[in-house]
Specification:
Blueprint (H helix, E strand, L loop, with lengths): L1 E6 L4 H11 L6 E7 L5 H8 L4 E3 L7 H14 L4 E4 L8 H6 L4 E5 L11 H8 L3 E8 L9 E8 L6 H24 L3 E4 L2 E4 L1
Parallel strand pairs: 1-2, 1-4, 2-3, 4-5
Antiparallel strand pairs: 5-6, 6-7, 8-9
Bound molecules: 5-O-phosphono-beta-D-ribofuranosylamine.
Length: 198
């Protein structure tokens, strides 16, 4: 199974996926890492592992023009699963339709709560006692696609956005690798909104 990973920054989920592949936890190969930011640390992580690290500049392009470049790059490399890992762009219908049920995302909250940016801060501001992370397939909405796996993380009395984000991130690494592995083994079946694990 060939995977393409899309990032915009730090790339710690990317590093966790690379590590899981190296430990034989995911039966796949990363064919490329693509970023919309030239300065993304994740590009260095990819290069250090000899994975093609590609910056595609969105400057002056419409959303769909940009996504056409992404899809061409991914298809040319034979990518079968696209993993968004901190990719800070809304993707177009064209992109979603080019990889139906083949784009995953990790979100740092228990969806459908706290979609969009700063999910950990949203959870703290709301006052929930439990948050967590969600891996889902990407559909044409924002953080609305069918849910693959979720993990709950408690919110502690003296949590800050930083401490909560850190505790959730530790779970993100495990959850994302598990979901990718299930996909690569052909064990995920999308039935409407439900994803069955077989
Ligand atoms: C993670 O918290 C992920 O859930 C969210 O963006 C962040 C990316 O972090 N979608 P990193 O670049 O993987 O370190």
């Amino acid at each position: 199974m060939k995977i393409g990973v899309l990032i915009s920054g730090r790339g710690s989920n990317l590093a966790a996926i690379i590590s899981a592949i190296q430990r034989d936890k995911i039966p796949a190969k990363i064919s490329c890492v693509i970023s919309n930011k030239a300065s993304a640390k994740g590009l260095e992580i990819a290069s250090n592992h000899k994975i093609p690290a590609i910056f595609i500049d969105p400057k002056g392009l419409s959303r769909e023009e940009y996504d056409r470049l992404l899809v061409t790059e991914l298809k040319d490399r034979g990518v079968e699963l696209v993993c968004l890992a901190g990719f800070m762009r809304i993707i177009s219908h064209y992109f979603v339709r080019s990889f139906p049920d083949r784009i995953m995302n990790i979100h740092p909250a228990l969806l459908p709560s706290f979609t969009g940016l700063a999910a950990q801060k949203q959870a703290l501001d709301y006052g929930v006692k439990v948050s967590g992370c969600t891996v889902h397939f990407v559909d044409e909405g924002c953080d609305t696609g069918p849910i693959i796996l979720q993990k709950a993380v408690p919110i502690l009395e003296d949590d800050t956005e930083e401490s909560l984000s850190k505790r959730i991130l530790t779970e993100e690494y495990k959850l994302y690798s598990e979901a990718i592995s299930l996909f690569c083994q052909g064990r995920l079946k999308v039935e409407g909104r439900r994803v069955r694990i077989t």
